[in-house]
């Protein structure tokens, strides 16, 4: 029988509205900085609130590669010419994580390094622009659109810039994509199919159609958004962001006590509508804990999905209270989306980075606003960051289409 | 549109699509292929240039043997 390896997180990368690398992101988490801004609405509609990651130019992306032979940097510049803003962020985060894991120096065989890109509908912004050109003339549809309009362009481009020749694919689970992509990558590493697996996710800006659809289904925050789990919550704040993690087998060279991925769990509600399931969310957390061999009482911290949805946050708070209780031994809870917005397909991976950073640095980031008194009294983090000797954490991810997932991590 | 503006637009398109090409080497008797552009690059450069100058010719009608001078003349003619 195949021996399953233990999986650890050895590299992190991030580009968000509150920090465009892991150091500045960590600093912003400590300060509880909220990167939410107001923008004029589409076509004279009411102003919208978004959390926008910075636009990186190709030079800034290439700098994330670190010291690189000129020929490699020139080749990367060529690959990145014409690549979308969101894919540039993905490459930046990927390079930061790759460097952080020390992979440039370690000479891992290229065919033993793989990649899982999390998310779906990664290129609708590109498609919208191409459609406008097509209406003027089919000759104005760029030939490269044939490549760029595929979600898998993220896999192609990142593996063209970084030496990744092992297995690569896109894994989607709506807003649970982050956890699902991590689970997919972790399985490959645990089984020994790969020595290293990069997980990357990046969300493009919402197209006008998507924004209208989310608004019309009642999911988008309209007006000044209340933070997740507060009484004033009114939907999600769309965000652009990119994140990346490197997963490897435990015990490899140069690993100075990395955070361990103890387990992953994902399941479906068998429900294609938007409503969450209390039973499904409870089962996701309990099953992940069982797989990890961890008791609820051992968990110090929960990074909630916390999207700001009226019914979603209520359901999750009840699920957390059901699994962990609300007494003194209950884990501290916060929602990173309160600070960075909801990056949809990239959200789960941004939150994994936030979870690892808090575990490793020993603090919980603030939870802005007063928790809604109508919710179970989970131990929500307060308005300021607290030092905390965190050992075990859970991060939740739920998505339209009935996706429930949870990861357990420990230091 | 005049010849120089079309040429400038094409030069800019080359710079965007193939940043490693030395655009000072652009000359009317050379093809894009001579400059190191592959078939996707050439089609891309043609598409970008045509949209910018308002020319509209089937991309497939142009071929790798077309010199830069010939392309510019065609785009001027059809813009």
What's a concise summary of this model?
Chain A has 411 residues and is of the alpha/beta class.
Task: Characterise this structure.
The complex is a heterodimer of chains A (411) and B (79). Helices cover 36% and strands 19% of the residues of chain A. Chain A has 14 helices and 15 strands. Chain A has helices at 22-31, 58-63, 70-80, 85-100, 103-106, 124-136, 145-148, 153-161, 177-191, 208-216, 278-292, 310-324, 337-340, 347-361; strands at residues 7-15, 37-39, 48-50, 113-118, 168-171, 196-203, 241-249, 259-268, 301-303, 332-334, 363-364, 379-380, 386-387, 392-399, 403-410. In chain A, the strands form three sheets. An eleven-stranded mixed sheet of chain A has the order 5-4-6-7-1-8-15-14-9-10-12, sandwiched between helices. In chain A, strands 2-3 form a two-stranded antiparallel sheet. A two-stranded antiparallel sheet of chain A has the order 11-13. In chain A, helix 9 packs across helix 14 (347-361) and helix 11 packs across helix 12 (310-324). Chain A is globular. With 79 residues, chain B is mostly helical. Helices cover 52% and strands 0% of the residues of chain B.
In DSSP terms, counting alpha (H) and pi (I) runs of 4 or more, how many helices of chain A?
A: 14
Strand content of chain A: 15-25%
Listing every helix as H and every strand as E from the N terminus to the C terminus, the arrangement of chain A reads: EHEEHHHHEHHHEHEHEEHEHEHHEEEEE
The radius of gyration of chain B is 11 Å
Average predicted confidence as pLDDT of chain B: 90
Task: Kindly state the number of beta strands of chain B.
Answer: 0
Query: How would a textbook summarize the main sheet of chain B?
Result: none
Q: Can you tell me the overall shape of chain B?
A: globular
- Biggest interface, residues from each chain: A-B, 14 and 16 residues
Q: List the total number of helices of chain B.
A: 3
* Spans of at least 5 consecutive residues with low confidence of chain A: none
Structural class of chain B: mainly alpha
Shape of chain A: globular
């Amino acid at each position: 029988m195949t021996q399953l390896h233990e999986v650890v997180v050895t590299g992190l990368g991030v580009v968000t509205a509150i920090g465009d690398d892991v150091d500045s992101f960590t600093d912003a988490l400590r300060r509880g900085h909220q990167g939410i801004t107001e923008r004029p609405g589409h076509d004279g509609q009411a102003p919208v609130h978004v959390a926008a990651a910075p636009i990186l130019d190709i030079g800034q992306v290439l700098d994330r590669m670190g010291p690189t032979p000129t020929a490699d940097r020139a080749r990367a510049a060529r690959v990145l010419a014409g690549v979308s803003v969101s894919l540039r962020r993905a490459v930046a985060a990927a390079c930061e994580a790759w460097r952080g894991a020390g992979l440039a120096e370690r000479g891992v065989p290229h065919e033993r390094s793989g990649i899982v890109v999390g998310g779906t509908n990664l290129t609708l912004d590109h498609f919208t622009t191409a459609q406008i050109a097509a209406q003027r003339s089919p000759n104005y549809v760029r030939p490269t659109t044939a490549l760029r309009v595929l979600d898998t362009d993220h896999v192609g481009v990142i593996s063209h810039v970084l030496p990744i020749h092992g297995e690569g694919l896109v894994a989607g689970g709506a807003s649970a994509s982050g956890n699902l992509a991590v689970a997919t990558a972790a399985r490959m590493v645990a089984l020994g199919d790969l020595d290293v697996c990069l997980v990357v996710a990046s969300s493009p800006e919402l197209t006008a159609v998507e924004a209208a659809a989310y608004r019309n289904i009642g999911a988008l925050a309209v007006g000044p958004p209340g933070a997740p789990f507060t009484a004033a919550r009114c939907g999600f704040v769309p965000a652009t962001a990119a994140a990346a993690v490197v997963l490897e087998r435990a015990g490899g060279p140069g690993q100075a006590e990395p955070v361990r991925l103890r387990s992953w769990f994902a399941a479906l509600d068998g429900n294609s509508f938007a409503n969450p399931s209390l039973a499904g969310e409870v089962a996701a957390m309990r099953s992940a804990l069982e797989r990890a061999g961890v008791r609820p009482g051992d968990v110090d911290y929960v990074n909630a999905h916390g999207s700001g949805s009226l019914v979603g946050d209520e359901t999750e708070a009840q699920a957390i209270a059901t699994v962990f209780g609300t007494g003194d031994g209950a884990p501290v809870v916060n929602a990173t989306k309160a600070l960075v917005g909801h990056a949809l397909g990239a959200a789960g991976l941004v939150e994994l980075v936030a979870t690892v950073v808090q575990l490793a640095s020993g603090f919980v980031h603030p939870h802005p606003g007063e928790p809604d008194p109508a919710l179970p009294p989970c131990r929500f983090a307060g308005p300021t960051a607290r030092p905390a000797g965190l050992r075990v954490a859970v991060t939740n991810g739920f998505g339209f289409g009935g996706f429930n997932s949870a990861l357990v991590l420990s230091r | 549109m005049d010849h120089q503006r079309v040429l400038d637009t094409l030069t800019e398109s080359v710079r965007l699509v193939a940043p490693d090409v030395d655009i000072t080497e652009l000359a009317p008797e050379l093809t894009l292929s001579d400059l190191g552009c592959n078939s996707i690059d050439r089609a891309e450069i043609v598409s970008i240039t045509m949209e910018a100058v308002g020319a509209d010719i089937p991309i497939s009608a142009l071929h790798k043997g077309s010199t830069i001078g010939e392309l510019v003349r065609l785009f001027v003619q059809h813009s």
